[in-house]
Amino acid sequence: MNTPVCLYAWVSLDTDRIPPVLGCGGGTWQSIERPTTKASNLACDAAQALMAGVTPTLRDNSGLFIGSTTGSLHDDLEFDNSRAADGGQYPSPNAFRRTLPSTLATELTMDLGLHGPVVVYAAGAASAAVACVRGAEYVRRGMVPMAIVGGMEIWTDGPPAGLAEPGVPAEAIASTQRRATDERCQIVLALIGPADSRGDQRPIGKFTQARLGGSDIHAPRQADRSLGLLVDLLAAGQGQMVVDGAVGIKAWLELQRL
Amino acid sequence: MPNPDHAMEIVTGSAVTPEFSSIHALWTAWQTGCRPEWKATDTPASMDWHHLVAEALRPILSQVRDAPRCGVILATTKGNIAEIEAWMAAVRQGRNVDRLPELMSESLNIVARRFGLGGPCYGVSTACTSGLTALIEAGELVASSVVAEAVVVAADTITGFTRDGFKSLKALAKTNCHPFDKNRDGLVLGSAAAACLLRRFDPGSRPERTVSLVGWGMSADAMHRTAPDRAAGGLIRAIRSALSMAGLGPEAIDAVVLHGTGTRYNDEMEATAMRTLFSHRPALSGIKGLIGHTLGAAGLIETLLAGQCLTTGMVPPMVGLQQTEYPDLNLVIQSGPARPIKYLLKTASGFGGLNAAVILSQTEPE
Questions:
Q1: Does A148 lie at the interface with B, CB-CB under 8 angstroms?
Q2: Could you tell me the fold of the domain covering A5-257?
């Protein structure tokens, strides 16, 4: 990469774990304070913690690059149920408004006042990694001054819960893990930018590699494994992650501690 | 001559809808105003998502130089929604569903495997700007030399799920789609798939004139889940970004192919943007009155048709427009004589306040 792209802060949560806040770097967010929570609230709280101290001008122009395997499936089911109820007379407009994979991302733009580019990526197991690589490239090319990158998944209850933990039946997840929130979700967000973009705030890491490659175009369906790998990488502060996304894509991210 | 660092040649493109089998057929219908006889109440029949995608992809594959390394970007709002809808019905009925439906990345996997496209491939979903977002992503991938060429595929099909959703929002037209018309009352939905091949513009490699992307921009209104910013701040920002990348002033734009959904709010917002940016009154047109709002496919299919405007010098009428509500704007109601078009702007806006803009230019051989 010609212009170094740096990591300034990151947050991670997984409502299937206790405590749900898995990690935080470069910021102060440590716990979920809302008594009842929806995934969109959690995502907005996490992103607000991430952007604390970022000037309004930088916020205004920052981009948002998010990966998601399941997209809006959780909300699709809710709208579909409203279609089926009462003989299909009253499909819920509020539920329909949320049936796009980009819904959660656009809610973040409203909450944070982001007016720059927004892209939501789907690349199977590499969705979050692809979002990180692409976001870093937008920063490197000077298309955005800073970017929020990462992945967000809202898990559905019932059969598709198996996606969160491949091979683990939904009942097993439900019986062994207490649900800490109204919606089960996993969110990993990182704030990245050029070395000098945050004024006095020093970056905590530097991406020495962020790239995509093709791969064999075959593989079974998988959850977004890059979410977990990304958390490990960010928590370690340095290292490398390689994800074979199984849709003809491989993503590499290498982080060096500063 | 566009900046070769940014200029991306649209080598070839194709599009299909249930009513039209090619870009040529669509272009002819747009020019002649021959709209198929359908109304909002009987939205055009949807087709199988994979069938539509395959029909759109086939004509362009012969132009791909290196399929194992060719990038693929898929644009869609809902992917294979018919399959997802069937899966949701099974879940609702309590049937023992032990698998997930075909999600976007799996649809993409099927497409890439079927056509042997082995470079980086991923899907993008940014509501009704998805088609333009995918085009921009492909442009960025080629500009960054991640790939030498990239295929962009954009597709959405209309099922009961989508139709009921827009109906619940009261966004569907009672009759037909009449963008920018005094009597417009909403949008009409349509199924479609489009595909194109993007490659870095090389002025010495082509004997004929080509259509290139010379600038692009994206933005977010950050205001409302569905309604656009009435001051058009987001769209204006996206257009300014595209103009800046192309190194152009607003006065350079000769024509605009608008998003033009036919809803009150969208058309009003776009009119505001045009009024704010373009005092020289470029020709404004759109085609949703012809094929409906094709959601994730709209941006790409309309960009490919905009390319036809460039090569022919013709800007066909805004389909469905009879009595303009915006006499101060140069909305095309009747076809005029061909004239040179150097730069053309294509815009799109979508739910969540997402906006995208691309600038097309016709490039001459050296």
A1: no
A2: Peroxisomal Thiolase; Chain A, domain 1 (3.40.47)
